[in-house]
Amino acid sequence: MSNSTYSPASDRYINSVGYQNCGKSGLMLPRLSLGLWHNFGDVDDAQEALKMIHYAFDHGITHFDLANNYGTPYGSAEKNFGKIMKDHLSSYRDELIISTKAGHDMWEGPYGDGSSRKYLIASLHQSLKRMNLEYVDIFYSHRYDPNTPLEETMGALSDMVKQGKALYVGISKYPLGKAREAYRLLKENGTPCLINQDKYNIFTRQIEQNVLPLAEENGVGFIAFSPLAQGLLSDKYLNGIPENSRAAHSYGFLQKSQITPEVVTKITELNEIAGKRGQTLAQMALAWCLRTPDVNSVIVGASSVKQLQDNIEAIQNTSFSNDELWRIGELG
């Protein structure tokens, strides 16, 4: 399929997922963003990946979230996305927000991990080459590295912006005190932190007490990853562990041992609440994350167009009664 055979829907911004300013910046993010952590590597279905990118863009999802080591093998998600960009979306570059990250293990040797200036800048150069881009819209420090002075890490991020290789910078999964320091350093460098990315879902709510208030205080946006708790907050595990599910594999972040009878009871009750709202459990879980304006966007990971379509439908109802919020809170 070439550029000439793909024409985005003309009404994609009218009938879209909606947009919200990222923190106090002028950048608007779609309420749902598409994450390419899973399902876009060399081991995955390339045609389905292409269809998902097209479907997302057709429905106003303009933000695609990557990292240097996404995909199997490392780098393959960026490489495959870059091919889609070149062959199908190159003329729409200015309508897209493309983010990537570095901070975790990427290549062998002492310079392929962590948050040193050497690693971050080398990684961004590699990412731009893989994705056929001149710049990324957002570049993240993917994690706090206790072995690198924070001044060095934030200085590298600031220089990326000043060199035009990233339009904005952000942090991900930083401890509260280090996030506060990062915000200060970036502001002093003249490149304020745009966004903080962290885990947030019904089962993981710790950020409500400190991370979200600190981001708002500093005018920093917030985007949530893992809103479905690696698939736990869906109907996938209501009746056991499916053969091809994430929990069925020996690798990955979700293990069989986590699917306890207590967890199954909770997701069964949450599923009943969702049903009364006219939603699937996954849709309710996404809507729950988006119920507060403090969350500017939520990253969804889909394995099919059908799954992505179901996720987008969650936007239709993000309002909750006090009773629903109380019951969901009791099960979280």
Q: Would you summarize the structure shown here?
A:
With 332 residues, this protein is of the alpha/beta class. Helices cover 36% and strands 14% of the residues. It has one domain: Alpha-Beta Barrel (TIM Barrel).
Per-chain topology:
Elements: E1 19-21, E2 28-30, E3 32-35, H1 46-58, E4 63-65, H2 76-89, E5 97-102, H3 117-131, E6 136-141, H4 150-162, E7 166-172, H5 176-188, E8 195-199, H6 211-217, E9 221-225, H7 261-276, H8 281-289, E10 297-300, H9 305-312, H10 322-331
Parallel strand pairs: 3-4, 3-10, 4-5, 5-6, 6-7, 7-8, 8-9, 9-10
Antiparallel strand pairs: 1-2
Helix pairs in contact: 2-3, 4-5, 7-10
Keywords:
two-stranded antiparallel ribbon, TIM Barrel, 332 residues, eight-stranded parallel beta barrel, alpha/beta
Topology-level CATH name: TIM Barrel
Radius of gyration: 19 Å
Unreliable stretches = 247-251
- The appropriate CATH architecture is Alpha-Beta Barrel
Backbone shape:
globular
How many structural domains does the protein architecture include?
1
CATH class categorisation: Alpha Beta
Order of helices and strands: EEEHEHEHEHEHEHEHHEHH
| The CATH homology group name | NADP-dependent oxidoreductase domain
Helix content: 25-40%
Our count of helices gives 10
Strand segment count: 10
Head-to-tail CA distance between termini: 44 Å
As laid out across the biggest beta sheet, the strand order is 3-4-5-6-7-8-9-10
Major sheet characteristics: 8 strands, parallel, barrel
Q: By helix and strand content, what is the structural category?
A: alpha/beta
| Proportion of strand residues | 5-15%
The pLDDT mean sits at 93
